[in-house]
Amino acid sequence: TWKWVVGPMFLYLCERLVRFWRSQQKVVITKVVIHPFKTIELQMMKKGFKMEVGQYIFVKCPAVSKLEWHPFTLTSAPEEDYFSIHVRIVGDWTEGLFNACGCDKQEFQEAWKLPKIAVDGPFGTASEDVFRYETVMLVGAGIGVTPFASVLKSVWYKYCHDATNLKLKKIYFYWLCRDTHAFEWFADLLQSLEAQMQERNNADFLSYNIYLTGWDETQATHFAVHHEEEKDVITGLKQKTLYGRPNWENEFKTIAGKHPGSRIGVFLCGPEGLADTLNKQSISNSEADPRGVHFIFNKENF
Fold first, then answer.
1. How confident is the model at residue 13 (pLDDT cuts 50, 70, 90)?
2. CATH superfamily of this structure's domain 24-123
């Protein structure tokens, strides 16, 4: 038995030693941004830190807990000179981090008063393959939109610096939210991308649809009254917020009709039930002919 146990135990101990070594490397919090609905953004720097789009890190804050590590998706782009995460305050640990960063105080916080942070990572995900396709479908559910913040930022940087060598030509972005709380910080990014793409006369590069799935009759009435306004009353975007859930069969057929003979990457960050639905649609809408359209499904579940 010991021959089978020694190998895995040795690898486990090596992994723990590597994590301990990483946790001792200095991480500097350069900025803390408070977003609406108790969401904070931590911008950090670490010597030798290199990332790709959609990756995640483990974070430990000794001031809150000396043993707990929590995973967070990176929301910054590799082209930026810092890396960032967005933290929604939904539990004891995140509440402790919120208070440790001084976000519960009104006065300005000096940088030296911010808590020490340990970072392990980054670790890879399926979202890294986005730039291998000419056409992609990005589907985020709720807080699952965070990896696509990194993707969309990186796309914009690449598009501005060298658009001719960018293989990615078309993005279909779907965001499903139960309520409006998650709209605040990400809508700002979409507004910026929307305005910049229009300035460059390439508004068709990014097509996005935002679905509010947890709506009630009051919200629906308000939506109907303001539907004719130039910008959406919830997000401030030109694309109107849709109510209910998408008809995925129609969406896949429409995209397949617009891009015949293409390999289309489908990327999801969301629950397992939605993953099953998108996987089935990817298979059923892919043609048997190798020269036909093919949907390649990639997922991250939470």
1. very high
2. Translation factors (2.40.30.10)
